[in-house]
């Protein structure tokens, strides 16, 4: 009888460990958010969004204030259209700037909001007036290499 009690306790802890692993996997994948879609939607147009994905966080001053709801392409301007869902307890002014930033050197990408000073606030369906696209590491490296190559005079035989 004592052995079966031990087996049940071990089974319980193994099941608890598996549930913890599933929960952590969902958290890492930004899938464990249990919000019900409340808040208001904002739209932002970017030249390049890099690796931004749906459900990526929207942050202001390091605080998560919303999530990326959808990513698409404007067929007329060929700009990336990002739809943001901002939680209802956060308000941003009309002159807020949206940027695509990266957590660390190789971390996840997110949308950063930098509020302005306008007394009028953005509402549901409004569009961010100013945006800053993602910095692409490969583009920066190639620009650096091309500028260095242009500085060195070519040798003529």
Biggest sheet details = 8 strands, mixed
Average predicted local confidence, pLDDT: 85
Lateral strand order in the biggest sheet: 7-1-4-3-2-6-5-8
Number of strands: 8
Helix content: 25-40%
What percent of residues are in strands? 25-35%
- Count up the helices: 2
Helix-strand sequence: HEEEEEEEEH
Radius of gyration: 23 Å
Runs with pLDDT <50, length 5+? Answer: none
Can you tell me the number of structural domains?
A: 2
**Cα distance spanning the termini:** 92 Å
Broad shape? flat
The class by helix and strand makeup works out as alpha/beta
Describe this structure in words.
The chain is an alpha/beta fold. The chain has 2 domains: 1-32; 40-143, no CATH class. It has helices at 2-28, 137-151, and strands spanning 40-46, 57-60, 63-73, 80-86, 97-102, 109-114, 126-127, 130-132. The chain has an 8-stranded mixed sheet with strand order 7-1-4-3-2-6-5-8, with no helix packed on it. Strand 3 (63-73) and strand 4 form a beta hairpin. The N and C termini lie far apart (92 Å).
What can be said about this structure in brief?
The chain has 157 residues and is an alpha/beta fold.
Keywords:
single chain; 157 residues; alpha/beta; 2 domains; 8-stranded mixed beta sheet; 27% helix
Strand-helix topology:
Blueprint: H1 2-28, E1 40-46, E2 57-60, E3 63-73, E4 80-86, E5 97-102, E6 109-114, E7 126-127, E8 130-132, H2 137-151
Parallel strand pairs: 1-7, 2-6, 5-8
Antiparallel strand pairs: 1-4, 2-3, 3-4, 5-6
